[in-house]
Design a protein that fits this description.
single chain; alpha+beta; three-stranded mixed β-sheet; elongated
């Protein structure tokens, strides 16, 4: 019986970690980088409180190549 409880608790913990990391990943800003120049074109902030720009890039972001 304790093995089942431990397995359920472990599965719940791993599931919560997965959902938490997925939610964090979905909230990362998107930085659009020009394919030809390699410079930042635009930053899209998905969280209202984020105010990142090309001059002030976040530490972590989704890198998207654009024309």
């Amino acid at each position: 019986m304790t093995d089942k409880v431990a397995a359920i608790a472990g599965g719940l913990f791993v599931g919560l970690l997965f959902v938490g990391s997925l939610m964090h990943s979905l909230n990362l800003p998107e930085v659009q980088i020009s394919h030809s120049t390699g410079e930042c074109v635009k930053v899209i902030n998905y969280v209202e409180s984020d105010k990142y720009t090309c001059d002030d890039l976040p530490k972590k972001y989704h890198h998207v190549w654009v024309k």
